[in-house]
Amino acid sequence: MNQATQTVLCMTGIKKSFSGVPALWGVDFELSPGEIHALVGENGAGKSTLIKIMTGAYRRDSGVMEYDQNSVAFPNPTEAQAAGIVAVYQEIQLVDFRTVAENIFLGREPHRFGIIDRRVMNTRAADILERLGLQIDPRSVVGSLNIAHRQMVAIARAISFGARVLILDEPTSSLTETEVSVLFNVMRRLKSEGTSIVYVSHRFEELYAVCDRVTVLRDGRNIVTRSLSTLNRLELVCYMLGRQPEEVSKGVTAFTGQSQNTLDRPVLLQAEALKYKKRLNGVSIEMRHGEIVGLAGLLGSGRSETVRALFGAEPLEGGTVKLEGSLLSLRDPHDAIDAGIAFLSEDRKADGIIPELSVRENLTLAALPNLTQWGIVSRKQQNELVERFMRRLGIKAASAEQKIHELSGGNQQKVLLARWLCKNTKLLLLDEPTRGIDVGAKREIQQLIAELAEQGLGVVMISSEVEELVEGSQRVIVLRDGQSIAELSGEQKNIKTILHAMAEGANHQEAADK
Amino acid sequence: VREKTKKIVGFSQTENIGPWRIAETNSIKEEAAKRKKTYDFLMTDAQGQTSKQFADIEDLIARQVDVIFLAPREYEGLTPALEAARAAKIPVFLIDREAAGRPGQHFVSFLGSDFIAQGRRVGEWLAQASDGKASIVELTGTAGSSVAIDRAKGFRDAIARYPNMKIVATQTADFSRAAAQRVMENIIQAKGSDITAVYAHNDEMALGAIQALKSAGMKPGKDVIVGSIDGQKAALEAIIRGELGVSVESNPRFGKLVFATMEEYFAGKKIPTRIILKDRLFDVTNAKDFVDEAY
Amino acid sequence: MKSKKPDLGWGTLWNPNFGAFAALLILYVANAVFTPRFATVSNTLNMLLQVSTTMLVAIGMTFVIASRGIDLTVGSTMALVSVIVALLIKYGMTVAILFALSGALLVGLLNGFLISRLKLDALITTLAALILWRGIAQVVGDGKLVPFAHPTFEALGKGYLGSIPIQVVIAGVVIVAAFFCIRSTLFGRHIVAVGGNEEAARLAGIRAERVKYIVYIISALLAGFAGLVETARLGMGDPSKVGVNAEFDAIAAVVVGGTPFSGGRANILGTVVGALLMQVISTSFNMLLIPFTWSLVFKSVIILFAIFLQRPKEI
Amino acid sequence: MAATKSLAKFLTSQGLLLILFSLAVFASFRYETFLTPLNLMNIMRQNSMLAIVALGMTVVILSGGIDLSVGALVALGGVVAAMLAGQGSFVAIVGGIASTTLLGVVNGLLVSRARLQPFVVTLFTASAARGLALSITEERSIAVPSAASGLVWLGRGFIGFIPVPVLIVALLYFATWFMLHRSRLGLHTFAIGNNEEASRLMGVNPNRVKLLVYTFSGLLSGLAGVVLAGRLGAGQPVAAFGWETDAIAATVMGGTFLAGGQGSVFPTLAGVILLGMMYNLLNLEGTITPWWQLVLRGGFLLLVVLFQQRIVQRN
Ligand SMILES: Nc1ncnc2c1ncn2[C@@H]1O[C@H](COP(=O)(O)OP(=O)(O)OP(=O)(O)O)[C@@H](O)[C@H]1O
Ligand SMILES: Nc1ncnc2c1ncn2[C@@H]1O[C@H](COP(=O)(O)OP(=O)(O)OP(=O)(O)O)[C@@H](O)[C@H]1O
Ligand SMILES: [Mg+2]
Ligand SMILES: [Mg+2]
């Protein structure tokens, strides 16, 4: 057994570049037994890359990795798993068509002569799920679960290895608070059993809640490794951003929280009694120019469906949508965009980026018709636009010609936001605009949203962070079971009431899930 | 078992691509139509595959036909099918190509041309026309087909006696005009004006080669003499224009002959095991007289 | 911001995107040395002439594959066009060509309808349609060859513009137009966007369904053109043999040229190189009088090697 | 959730069974000889070789790949077996299967290790294998001597009243079904077909699975070739043209996702039988001109695909 002073995992001078562009410049990282070690940094700092090198999903260009005092180089994640290093990656990686149990045991199925023992597999999976407090049938197909449950399955899988080193790359970005606290309990228990955990998150409360030490990465270099108890939030942010404390203002979000008076402004959007399948049965939203309206609700309450329907991405089966007083008939997103509506979807990978295309092309995709004359796209205008917005949003990329899938998650999100900002829009529909985004970028984006609203844009914002809704929006509309059940503004618009309104239907919801 | 008023004739054709096959099919269909009162006629198309043809024959047997006309895909591979027919006591007449099996036992009779002789006759004609001195390009039929093999063999037998007749290139063109044109263009690039003669395994390929020669600025019939097999209408017209030297007939019109033979068989007459058609030879001397009746 | 342009030094030679081009260059030079009469103007023109119909079809295929589809009906389209034009040429060339191309349009429309509207799988749909249209072409022509004589029309396949065959000129024009279309037009960008991520493209306001429709129509029309050229060249309509296996030649050209099956990228110049590469191999084997059966083997091995050179790198 | 999925699965296979059944009812009324034991046995026996090939194809497609070389491998396996038949049946059978298994390994290595696209790799190994089969036989068919009784038995023999090829098919389908749904290897095949990257990160070795899958397909193609050679009494280098497309069609008609990861083997068998029945009915009808047969086949295939995918999409 290792002594407490020894390290389980020690990486020194790790370098990695992608087609000539360095992502890691020589990073050191150290993990002690039985500690929860936070890995933080801005988007694109190199966290995910470092993790993938640990598990052998990527090959490092140079540097040493010692595991249990032995120098190792895992050729693939299988070897790392066998050696006791297991990861949950940032983009949930599961096999959708197969069952929960099969996913949990993939690659190490209980078997006899190569024949899988399904009974054992299912009962063991059920055990593991139960320990996480999850009511998921191990025989259900993963593709039929919602994102949160899938994330929990991925975590269950990783935990079930009883690994010495567990790596969690932004595991909580799509979890609800209850699930997060279940996860933290599990992490604490694993820690007490001697497991070391590497934990990546952009949410500071989480770091302070469970982590012992923190390593900060910036631009592919490590800045500092310290115990979290000796480091306050402000210092941490400063390390991440590379700025002085006085430059970084306080507050949870960049929103001022003061609602500007928009009552005298003309009405922008009137959506009434929207209906779509069983998901939406009567959502109404009314808003004026310059307003930010928050949509709150539990998972599956129909927030995403509402904005998708407003964007013409789901065919409405009932209800009316009026923009500036004129009735819209939205057959597809094209119609919505023509009318001046923009939409940032919650699933970046599936509905947002076009992976093989460059940052330039992704950024200008929606604006292309405006840059086109006689069917020919003006490259010059395109470049100007791209340069302007890359600078404005601080998008980190090797060049505008880099493929977007090579960017870190947060930077991809910024490109997608820029896609709509470079077009003239009246109404901005944002589904989780700051999910998976580092504090710096998050503040920038929040500021941007506020600015846009001041300029007269209407914004509908979905967020799972209630603070964001409280501070950012003038009004919060709470959805439950596809219906708008409350509209909170002024005094009423506080965390407690919102959570209360959301939760009122919680029991009801759980019953429906079964 | 079932009450039969009419006999059923089953015809298993190997494929229906190209003028020759279609003429053959049509000739048999026409004869069958003439006998509608006494015979039902069923036809299958093997799409150029022995395995499908085997299945077709099995289907015909299951359908309880009284006689099978078989235009085999190739020599090997149908013996088991013939055996199945024999077991079901259904007489088989082989048309235009032979198939492995014992005559009188596996099949009643083979009716067709002598492919080796066809190749030989073209060879002899070319030797005469070129005074026994030629550089020949050979365009062969579908790789692996017995016709292509026999026509190649007969031709080689004929020119073996002339030391100055050499095959300078032999390439397959799949019995197709388009392919022949392409292949010939390439050969012309490689051999240029060395070429003095072309032997094509069928008329279609000869016509393709003539196209290629013309677009390369060579005069078919003068700079390069061309010989082929089949005797189809377009070929006879080419002979009349002086572009094609010779076409040895390979008559596809089996309809009359095969029905007559079958009726003789049912009448209890003794049928010879091989009935070889007399193929005519068309060249500039007689092409005009036959062009109208050609297919 | 670190903005580094990919450098164009010697290192590019090893860039996997140039694998097919390198193979083409090597083969051409090797043949120039070893195959008599290979590197002549007339033979080079001959190769261009022979590759031009494949080129036309392959360009259309590049569009389809870039949109993450596939079109196996191209060969049958050529056959359909071939019989229609041959049957109708006696009513005048314009009429014949118009009707023939409408036939091709019909094929494209049906493909588009089934694949983009009804969301059927492209491979299996066009596989079935391939059989269907070949059958229809044969029914229309009653399975027979349809000879005709019409010098003006035949010039399409046999004529020259100066010393360059007309069909090579046609292919050249189509290549330039397609290159321009993919690179600079709105439609071109929409194709790659739809191929790259259809849902994302739709949410960015692109009418993906319409884009896919048009892509299949383009492919069918280009195959139609190829059918016209082929028919003019042969001087007859042939529903059974025109365009047989054209789809595989075209797909091979596209893929050897580096356009991936997964869509989202369209490398027109790559397709041109791919088609040329395969033509150089066939021609040189023909000229070296390598027996057809062995040439099948060698040709495959060479092409596999060329593809191997441009395999994706491991991270 | 799981229940609706398996219901979907059941319905897709049942959809096909429904078509099969209605076609059979129609046929038994129209052709008095359709329901005879002889005809039914014919359908089974005639299609057993394709069924074997389609089984390999299904497994490859499940793993997210495709194998266009199966037809050529059937031919190669057949001629190798026929050429070796003089040495006795055992040598012939093993030799025939070994040759194609080897090429299956080549496919597998190129797809897995070299990370090339399966469509292209197998397109060209197909043409190489075809060329090889033609070359080693000098383009002739090779007769199987009657002394090689084991080989002949494989193609034409009976056990009881069941034809040997049918028995082989039954055994193979059950064994493969068991492997796919009960073994780790089977699970891994489905997993990489669904999401290769995720499977890799979770500890599946995709390269090993792919290698095995293509090897299996090569082996089955060889077996089909050997059985075919036994059945015809000859090994033919031109055999099994276009079987790859028939096998793909059968697989897809059986509801297997062309993209991989979802499907099963028995529906494929139903697909094969449906294809075979189509030919059988055309033969029993016996008066439809060949070109109309193509139209009917293409149209019918299209309808089945349409029907099939509608059901899949609805679920
Ligand atoms: N597959 C890849 N190809 C090319 N570049 C890549 C690839 N993966 C990552 N990069 C680059 O490496 C850098 C580090 O990315 P990484 O994903 O590790 O960031 P991160 O710290 O995880 O960010 P985030 O918080 O946004 O997830 C980024 O600049 C990114 O563009
Ligand atoms: N009734 C349902 N049946 C099946 N899947 C559902 C159902 N309700 C929700 N889901 C799944 O859960 C996901 C989230 O649901 P939805 O988008 O309606 O809720 P939301 O309020 O937007 O939640 P989120 O916080 O995830 O955005 C959806 O993408 C959907 O796939
Ligand atoms: Mg990351
Ligand atoms: Mg949502």
UniProtKB/TrEMBL annotation, chain A:
Keywords: ATP-binding, Nucleotide-binding, Repeat, Transport. One of its GO terms (molecular function) is ATP binding. InterPro entries: AAA+_ATPase, ABC_carbohydrate_import_ATPase, ABC_transporter-like_ATP-bd, ABC_transporter-like_CS, P-loop_NTPase. The keyword Membrane does not apply. It comes from the Bacteria. Residues 9-244, 263-506 form the ABC transporter domain. It holds the Pfam family ABC_tran. PANTHER family: CARBOHYDRATE TRANSPORT ATP-BINDING PROTEIN MG119-RELATED, GALACTOFURANOSE TRANSPORTER ATP-BINDING PROTEIN YTFR. This is Sugar ABC transporter ATP-binding protein. It comes from Nostoc flagelliforme FACHB-838.
Automatic annotation (TrEMBL), chain C:
InterPro entries: ABC_transp_permease. Pfam families: BPD_transp_2 (PF02653). It is found in: Cell membrane. Its main location: membrane. Keywords: Cell membrane, Membrane, Transmembrane, Transmembrane helix. It comes from the Bacteria. It is a multi-pass membrane protein. The chain crosses the membrane at residues 12-35, 47-65, 72-89, 95-115, 122-140, 160-182, 211-229, 288-309. This is ABC transporter permease.
TrEMBL record, chain D:
It comes from the Bacteria. InterPro entries: ABC_transp_permease. Its main location: membrane. Pfam families: BPD_transp_2. It is found in: Cell membrane. It is a multi-pass membrane protein. The chain crosses the membrane at residues 6-29, 50-83, 89-111, 157-180, 211-232, 265-282, 288-307. Keywords: Cell membrane, Membrane, Transmembrane, Transmembrane helix. The keyword Transmembrane helix applies. This is ABC transporter permease. The lineage of its organism: Bacteria, Bacillati, Cyanobacteriota, Cyanophyceae, Nostocales.
